[in-house]
Amino acid sequence: ELEHYFKDYLENAVTELNQDLGEDKYTYDSLIAALKLNYDGYSFDRRCRHHVYNPWSILNFLKKPQEGFLPYWLDTGGAKPSLLVNYLNTFIDKKVKKTELVDYLNLEFVKRTNTAALSPTLTDIEDENFPFFAILYQAGYFTIKKTEPDFLFVGLPNQEVKKAFAELVIEKLTNKDAIAVNDVYKDKISAALNNKDYTALKEEFNKILNEFSYESVVSFKEYAFRDVYKVMLQILGYNTYTEYQTALGRSDLCFEDEDRLYICEFKVIGKADSVKDKLEEAKAQIKEKRYGIRLTDKEVITLAIVIVNENASDKQKPMREVAAVKQVN
């Protein structure tokens, strides 16, 4: 229906975007793909046969396409319903683990459930068994992704909602909102990447790690550190992907801007004296799996990252740091 009723607007959007970028980056088909990625994916029927766009976001995009694919849902106030915020304020770390919030921040993540579990009565919210994912579904963060007999699978519908949820997660993990995060890190990380100054990038990554309390990271596994950086980079405006599938394996983290695609392999160790060995292991894996070979016009940069997560005897001062960030040629 979008293409049937708004084809002229869509063709105009292609022209406006390419004029603003100064290059013919978008075709009609690639624009449709970008709209699907950012604003589509909502499904409410039991068999998950039909998907719909966020109408508010589509209308705003078509009105000002030259501004790009902005997260218009955030501007409506609907991204932070009081029910969800109050639930997190009350039950964070009691019924909802902070690491669980990070797990949900993946467009490929799905939670298996059923119709009854998605629609409990709101008077049950104080019950310790009230499912967190049901609130996410009712608040518009989760949608039906696929179905099986007797089961539904719910998760984030698109990039716009992913960004909104990322901001909420960061606030709960660091007590800073997205504006504060951008003010502190955006320019410095952008400069480090543009200058290929990976010593400076390591320093900024360490500052990010120190934003989180000991309680937030004490039980972190390798994937959790990876996902923390995914969330922060998402907040800073990068497109992010975890466990991106390649022909020979899955890279830990990918993020990209307009010009470059960064592919990262993380290694987490318990003692600082094995940093060199783990760095070499990460480099070898990147080369063996050929992570740097991608069908893209962007410059591809592969990075090996080693994190030390050693629990100190003093629980208030655990040793956790990004010990190495190296480009792999």
UniProtKB/TrEMBL annotation:
Source species, domain of life: Bacteria
InterPro entries in the record: PDDEXK_9
Name of the protein described by the UniProt record: Uncharacterized protein
Organism, as annotated: Succinatimonas hippei (strain DSM 22608 / JCM 16073 / KCTC 15190 / YIT 12066)
